[in-house]
Amino acid sequence: MSDTDNFPAPATVESLADSVAKLADEIYLSLAIIGTALTTLWGDLTEKLRSAPQSSDLAPLRETIAGELERRGKLFSGAGVVMADGVLADRPRHLEWWLPDAQRLMLELNPDSEYFYDYTKMDWFSIPREQDRRWVQGPHLDYACGDQYVCTFSIPVTTTSGTFLGIAGADVPVAAIEEVLLPRFQASIQRVVLVNGEGRVIMGTDPDFTTGSKTSRMDKSVPTIPIEAMPWSLRPLGSMQR
Length: 242
Description:
alpha+beta, 9 strands, 4-stranded antiparallel beta sheet, single chain, Beta-Lactamase, 29% helix, 2 domains
């Protein structure tokens, strides 16, 4: 047996991309569970009521959302559903979004207010609505949850007949993503950063490129490695100094 047999092979950039994709799949699995709960509840309510449900009728979703928050632990700083315009009988806009401490997130949804939060214009809502696909937006600062960088993951939720009901989503702190992925990134022989579609850094192993910074100073000749079914990619930056 040689000395090198005692050490695992260094991680390749392709294996790191696979690790990112697997983490994302776990996140989207939770969102699918929440989304299915909404579709099922909506079908039961419309059959029973013979009319559009009201916001209070969505209360049973809390149990499913709380279950996924508990299951994911520090990975989720908040999760829930955000409803499409006009699908509820009593409110034009509504979100059933919960935090891990069992508090419900309250936002200003009155268009006449100077603090109006128009979630319909956010990419995490509009892209699943318009393109019928999962999405992730960020990193962005989440002022509602301690000014931390988060990425907002979302999937479209529809009725069984295909009507768009809204999205199921979760806020995932970058610090939690780092906790899962950074040890694997550090096992790579290369410095590498994970970037979003706008060229902003999510995380990585080069201290010159911190979360939220732009990648315009990076060598454009080095090919990036896309993350499967996500608007993210890995960008190698050269060998690690050991």
